[in-house]
Amino acid sequence: MINGKISHDEVSSTLPGSPELFNLISAKDHEQVVFCSDKASGLRAIIAIHNTTLGPALGGARMWTYASDFDALNDVLRLSRGMTYKAAAAGLNLGGGKAVIIGDPHTQKTEQLFRAFGRFIEGLGGRYVTAEDVGTGVTDMVHIFHETKYVTGIPFELGGSGDPSPVTAYGSFCGIKACANVRYGNDSLEGKRIVIQGAGHVASTLAKHLTEAGAKVYIADIYADKAKQVAKDTGAKVINPDEVFDTDCDIFAPAALGGIINDQTIGKLKCEIIAGPANNQLGDEEKHSQELAERGILYAPDYVINAGGLINVASELEGYSQPRALKQAENIYDTLKKILLRSQELGITTNEAANHIVEERLSAIGATKRIYASQSKFSGRFGEFWKRND
Question: 196 with 203: CB under 8 angstroms?
């Protein structure tokens, strides 16, 4: 295993069922990995369930053209573990899971493929609940829904939550205010210079919240027309994508691709805070979080600040209500502030502080599960199919 990834050589001589494969899967304490194959539809997928201490595993299904099956396995193991931490940090009674479908999302999507995938999810009996992710969308979730109820992110008319971006953006806005409170002593964003990298649905809604709070917002996107539209709608100023790291600002808000804080960019940063909704912002979590701390840059762990999307789809489990989801997303403020203050108190990185808090919750709730209780059931769109794992 190199840098936490399974190497080709390690797996190329490893067949399912061998001790070596089980060691690889258990390296980060995964509970279950399911390999799904359906020749008729062309489905090749992997479902990883990392931890169900807090509840059923919830996480999206990603469709991607992986260079190898081993890359797909690496990705699903990494992503599913991240979902455990995201759900726990958000205070949700959910575990972490993820799925990857191996294939080109532009040319290989079919109703048959996603319905076959839905049948595999159904067979897990509620241990894993899926949602949209990179390469999949609402239409794909509807196909899955024809075969299983264990899917979120479906349209309103089917009892789902629809577009999660408003809740993701609002949660990120609350998180930015928490960072401002810790760094500047108050929540005010009046006059703060904030650079947003990306101009998608989440970024555009975030820009609206920030400009309404009095911030001076700068927006950049590789698609210039998208950035111009956000600027028109919110009063933000468009900057060139190449300028996002060199622009003097108070807060940098990544809202596009992951891995953008890396060896090439970290030395260019001219900000005091990094807080935004993008996933996997750090190229190397341990190394780059430490470098940011040494440079005096306050970093909001991405899986904490961007949890609004997960909160949104999780709210479907009890019958969706956007006002309730938005209210729950406000808790990101308190959670993030607690993490930042613990980081300062213990002299550790904000990522380490976040992980400590998550692991404390998993340990505490895991201990509680030793106490026998009669089984209760969820209500809402999911009816009575879920029993709490007491």
Answer: yes
Catalytically active residues, by annotation: 98
Q: Do 272 and 123 share a domain, yes or no?
A: no
For residue range 112-153, list pLDDT tens digits in order.
Answer: 999 999 999 999 999 999 998 888 988 999 999 999 999 998
pTM of the model: 0.83
121's enclosing H/E stretch is helix 111-123
Contact 293, 163 (CB under 8 A): no
Closest C-alpha to 192, from 173, 175, 211, 208: 211
Structure tokens at 236: 């933000």
Number of alpha carbons in the 13 Å side-chain half-sphere of residue 112: 8
How many domains are contained in the chain? 2
Dihedrals φ, ψ of 248, to 5°? -65, 125
Residue whose C-alpha is closest to residue 304's, from 338, 254, 349, 354: 354
Residue 160 belongs to a domain: no
List Cβ neighbours of 188 (8 Å cut-off, separation of 6 or more). 180, 213, 214
Query: In this structure, are 42 and 171 located in the same domain?
Result: no
- Give me the mean pLDDT over the 305-334 stretch: 92
CA distance readout (Å), 371 to 211, 250, 365, 366, 376: 49, 48, 10, 10, 14
* Residue 39 contacts residue 112 (beta carbons within 8 Å): no
Closest by CA position to 330, among listed 181, 192, 176 = 176
Question: Do residue 192 and residue 311 come from a single domain?
Answer: yes
